[in-house]
Amino acid sequence: MTPLRRSLSLRAATALMAGAIVAQCTPAQAESVVKLPAALVDPAVNAKRATAVLAGGCFWGVEGVFSNVKGVISVESGYHGGSAATARYELTHDGKSGHAEAVRIVYDPSQVSYGTLLRILFSVVADPTLKNRQGPDTGPQYRAAIVPLDASQRQVATAYLSQIGGGKYFARPIVVPVEAYKRFYPAEANHQDFMRRNPTNGYILRWDAPKLAALKRLYPNMVRAKPAP
Fold first, then answer.
1. What are phi and psi of 93, to 5 degrees?
2. What number of CA atoms fall less than 13 Å from residue 171's CA on the CB side?
3. What distance lies between CA 135 and its chain's CA centroid?
4. Could you tell me which of 142, 121, 118 has the C-alpha nearest to residue 131?
5. How far, in Å, CA of 179 to CA of 169, rounded?
6. Taking the chain (229 residues) in consecutive chunks of 10 residues, what is each chunk's mean pLDDT?
7. Active site residue 58
8. Between the N and C ends of the chain, which has fewer C-beta atoms within 10 Å?
9. Given 15, 58, 144, 174, which residue is catalytic?
10. Is 227 within 8 Å of 68 (Cβ atoms)?
11. Taking the model in full, what pTM does it have?
């Protein structure tokens, strides 16, 4: 089985079963959608470009949402947490590689802050109360995680998790880890920009398109006119 066929089969089983109810699916039904507050700790960054590494379940939807955020320059799907030897799609699905499906976001800090990226991640992309799973996907490779690249990002991350955890926005405790950066490995070409290239894919319709719809509904002023590459 080819990596592409395997990638589709692993996620498509749920999508095929969900096909009959796609028309009834609302953003709130697809994922936990919560309009969260802006980060209280979110210092300005004096740079034209900055990079964030975030994980929030299947990277198709994470990339698809963040590529539509104003101020985002580019988004790349990939793997973080394991070694180069296991940074391949077919080697991550036993949950033993250490990798999470993740995205690397290059953004303009003058237009969108790191705290705002976290706000979007936990408002419409990932449920921060779920451990080692998101949506229909289970296993540590689908964990939600924040991977700070410097001390400032770590400060924002820990403060925001404390802020939303103490604000009673969720019925369950926040379980998202703040992980030490190791190395980000880009995913295979067929996984890049998957949501835009496959808008009628069953998995995308059931689980990821509602996330983008929620972004546009909750934060219309944060949406780009056209997706970033």
1. -90, 5
2. 2
3. 12
4. 142
5. 23
6. 42 44 38 90 96 98 98 98 96 93 98 98 97 96 98 98 95 96 97 97 97 97 94
7. yes
8. N
9. 58
10. yes
11. 0.88
How many C-beta neighbours within 10 Å does residue 150 have? Answer: 12
Copy the structure tokens of residue 174.
């926040």
Three-state SS letters, the chain: CCHHHHHHHHHHHHHHHHHHHHHHCCHHHHCCCCCCCCCCCCCCCCCCCEEEEEEECCHHHHHHHHCCECCEEEEEEEEECCCHHHCCHHHCCCCCCCCEEEEEEEECCCCCCHHHHHHHHHHHHCCCCCCCEECCEECHHHCEEEECCCHHHHHHHHHHHHHHHHCCCCCCCCCCCECCCCCEEECCHHHCCHHHHCCCCHHHHHHHHHHHHHHHHHCHHHECCCCCC
Q: First-to-last CA distance in the chain?
A: 29
- Sequence ranges of the domains in the chain: 3-221
Q: Judging by DSSP bridges, how do beta strands 50-56 and 184-186 pair with one another?
A: unpaired
Domain 3-221 sits in CATH 3.30.450.40 = no
Residue 12: exposure state from Cβ atoms within 10 A (0-12, 13-18, ≥19):
middle
pLDDT at res. 28: 38
